[in-house]
Amino acid sequence: MSDGTELWLIRHGETEWSLNRKHTSRTDVGLTEHGRQRAEELRDYLAGTEFAAVFTSPMKRARETCTIAGFGDVAKVDEGLMEWDYGVHEGRTTAEIRAESPGWSVWKDEIVGGETVERVGERADSVIERALAAGSGGRVALFAHAHILRILGARWIGLEARKGELFVLGTGSVSVLGWERETRVIEGWNRGFEG
């Protein structure tokens, strides 16, 4: 049954590591100048939008995006919005990993020292529950990271966590999860601000 709550998924702005396509989870990197500009564009885009609740990952890049976008004073940190723990692959690109393990995919292969995709899916399910509880039929903003938000989108519409591979998210993007009557739907995905 729908209470009408919408989840607005907001990916943080560009970092040096996202620019260079490095897997970034627990490494606490900040935004680039371009990333800060994108967060300002988010502020303009979201101006006047009312949220029943705002949650952010504890990582600097998400908190900084949230603050620049104008919601830092009301946001609550949610550990469930942490990015996928990439274990031994932290700070490495897919190309670097594939040089050692041809065909490797974060979506299909074991993450040594990190999280399984199923575990990230469980975290996403918990975030959804908390967001719905806080939403009261309104909008809830979630400032976080590419993979956790992709998985959250998949879980919202009843797909297994691994199917997050089917969704792409640019830095500084906005996606909206909502309802068509009682069915969970994706209302908008990967709204970017590139000129």
From TrEMBL:
Protein name per its UniProtKB record: Histidine phosphatase family protein
EC numbers, comma separated: 3.1.3.-
InterPro entries in UniProt: His_Pase_superF_clade-1 (IPR013078), His_PPase_superfam (IPR029033), PGM_Phosphatase (IPR050275)
Annotated keywords: Hydrolase
Source species, domain of life: Bacteria
Positions of substrate binding: R61
Enzyme class name: hydrolase
Keyword Hydrolase in annotation: yes
GO biological process: regulation of phosphorelay signal transduction system
A single GO molecular function term of this UniProt record: protein histidine phosphatase activity
Pfam family, one: His_Phos_1
